[in-house]
Design goal:
4 helices; 58% helix; single chain
Length: 71
Amino acid sequence: MNLDITQDNLYLILPSKVSRMAEMLAADSGKNIVQAVKEIYASNVYKRLEQEHTKQWHLGPVALYQEMCAN
């Protein structure tokens, strides 16, 4: 069984990270969850997250959210 993360299977771990980030963004900003998800998908953090070679997928949702808020 191959457990390596590759560009071909990275999409499997992204929804849980985005979901938690969206919950934090919605709570902090008062946006609804759909708006929060759209903002995350449009962010530079997500653009890096969806590229396996950046290794951003190693970071947890809290660190990713903090990085997104810092920019």
